């Protein structure tokens, strides 16, 4: 999902008469693929090294053991157990490992973001004149928190990160109101690429003046040297961690994500979700991936190695003012000038990154996903060539 807006939608006809007022004010969001859908695609933080698994043999629909004529298991217990085995093998908190009752399985982690807002935030921002509950976000951050809050008519409290992309914890605590139900912490952040230390998450989760939940979005955690907050889930009753198979596992196309949290919260998420949200083809490929984590770990090592090479080369360019530290599979960097023009010309010539210069603290910044060695070479060559052309 991306964060740039299209023009306003048509609000005429039956739809305009019947729709909820906050929905009528929504503008459709452009995803990365709306702008460019071919070439070297380094714009959506996908995994250029490919999927870590495939669906089981599906050439014969009558003999693949999947019984596609039957509905899938609504709770995906086998899949959840495999996720728990893998996460527990990496880190077991002093309070013990996670179990399937700690896990919600959804259509990407985006589904979990929406469901959490629907469960915990009473709407009313538009319908009730600024009333209702709120979420807190820390810009620059992932755009879906905003999107889901707006769809659900929920207020957004923004406490920007510092220019170094760290949380401003005292300001966040100061901004909490009785209506604040969810605080979204993106770690590693998108577009910042920076991990938030677990000590910050503990600090917020232990804050006596906050009665809501901390949602730690760990879409990129497998690329980070900071440990996962899943180790805190069995210790605290107010932390929910979001993870996905879309990034390190290279499975954005199957749409599979997780929320890992206290069983009472996970139970509510299961009560609210559509009964058969995760389909059999998805869970089949997801389970294969979680049984094949050697491939995942190899791809992650390769991407981190490539990330180091791209950082080094970017840092050597005199027109690159800053390359932000990255714990993710992408880099955020600042050029001297004309970042938007640079991005556009490069994309028109087939190398697609993402202009992030309209985000807080991201003036003249571009975000680029780490690709294969060939793709990274093409990106760096094109960047140098186009910048030289447009520089005064
Ligand atoms: C921070 C963050 N969270 C969640 C997601 C969505 O992940 P999924 O594909 O699991 O819906 C993304 C996707 O780019 C992301 O950047």
Please give a structural write-up.
With 392 residues, this protein is of the alpha/beta class. It folds into two domains: 31-51 and 295-390, Aspartate Aminotransferase, domain 1; 77-291, Aspartate Aminotransferase, domain 2 (3-Layer(aba) Sandwich), CATH 3.40.640. Helices cover 36% and strands 15% of the residues. The protein contains 14 helices and 15 strands. It has helices spanning 13-18, 21-24, 32-35, 77-90, 108-120, 144-151, 169-175, 198-205, 230-233, 263-272, 280-290, 293-315, 339-348, 373-390, and strands at 4-5, 29-30, 40-41, 103-106, 134-137, 155-158, 180-186, 213-217, 239-244, 257-260, 320-323, 330-335, 351-352, 354-355, 365-369. A seven-stranded mixed β-sheet has the order 4-10-9-8-7-5-6, sandwiched between helices. The chain has a four-stranded antiparallel β-sheet with strand order 11-12-15-14, covered by helices on one side. α4 runs parallel beside α11 (280-290). The chain is globular, with a radius of gyration of 21 Å. It starts with a strand and ends with a helix. The structure holds pyridoxal-5'-phosphate. Pyridoxal-5'-phosphate binds at residues 1, 45, 108-110, 142, 186, 190, 217, 219, 244, 246, 252, 257.
Ends: how far apart? 34 Å
Query: How much beta, percentage-wise?
Result: 15-25%
Q: Count of helical segments? A: 14
Largest sheet, in brief, is: 7 strands, mixed
Class based on secondary structure composition and strand pairing: alpha/beta
Quaternary arrangement of the chains shown? single chain
Q: What CATH architecture label of the largest domain applies?
A: 3-Layer(aba) Sandwich
Strands of the biggest beta sheet: in what spatial order? 4-10-9-8-7-5-6
Radius of gyration: 21 Å
Shape: globular
Q: Return the CATH topology of the largest domain.
A: Aspartate Aminotransferase, domain 2
CATH class descriptor name of the largest domain: Alpha Beta
Point out poorly predicted stretches: 1-5
Which molecules are bound besides the chains?
Answer: pyridoxal-5'-phosphate
Beta strand count: 15
């Amino acid at each position: 999902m991306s964060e740039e807006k299209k023009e306003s939608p048509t609000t005429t006809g039956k739809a305009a008469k019947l729709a909820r007022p906050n929905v009528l004010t929504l503008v459709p969001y452009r995803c990365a693929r709306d702008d460019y859908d071919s070439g070297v695609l380094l714009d959506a933080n996908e995994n250029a090294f490919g999927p870590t698994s495939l669906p089981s043999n599906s050439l014969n629909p009558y003999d693949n053991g999947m019984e596609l004529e039957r509905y899938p298991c609504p709770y995906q217990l086998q899949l959840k157990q495999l996720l728990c085995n893998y996460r527990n093998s990496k880190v077991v908190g002093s309070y013990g490992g996670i179990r399937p009752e700690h896990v919600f399985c959804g259509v990407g982690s985006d589904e979990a973001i929406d469901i959490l807002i629907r469960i915990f935030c009473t709407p009313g921002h538009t319908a009730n004149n600024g009333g209702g509950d709120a979420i807190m976000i820390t810009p620059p951050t992932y755009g879906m928190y905003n999107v889901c809050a707006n769809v659900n008519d929920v207020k957004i409290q923004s406490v920007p990160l510092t220019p170094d992309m760290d949380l401003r914890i005292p300001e966040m605590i100061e901004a909490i109101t009785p209506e604040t139900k969810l605080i979204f912490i993106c770690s590693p952040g998108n577009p910042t690429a920076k991990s938030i230390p677990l000590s910050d998450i503990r600090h917020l989760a232990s804050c006596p003046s906050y009665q809501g939940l901390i949602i730690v979005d760990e879409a990129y955690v497998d690329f980070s040297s900071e440990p996962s907050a899943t180790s805190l889930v069995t210790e605290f009753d107010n932390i929910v961690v979001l993870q996905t198979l879309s990034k390190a596992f290279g499975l954005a196309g199957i749409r599979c994500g997780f929320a890992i949290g206290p069983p009472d919260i996970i139970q509510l998420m299961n009560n609210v979700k559509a009964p058969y949200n995760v389909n059999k083809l998805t869970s089949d490929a997801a389970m294969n991936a979680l049984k094949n984590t050697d491939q995942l770990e190899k791809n992650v090592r390769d991407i981190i190695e490539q990330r180091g090479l791209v950082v080094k080369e970017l840092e050597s360019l005199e027109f690159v003012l800053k390359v932000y530290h990255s714990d993710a599979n992408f880099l955020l960097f600042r050029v001297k000038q004309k970042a938007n023009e640079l991005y556009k010309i490069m994309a028109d010539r087939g190398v697609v990154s993402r202009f992030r210069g309209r985000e807080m603290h991201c003036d003249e910044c571009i975000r680029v996903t780490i690709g294969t060695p060939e793709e990274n070479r093409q990106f760096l060559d094109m960047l140098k060539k186009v910048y030289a052309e447009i520089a005064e």
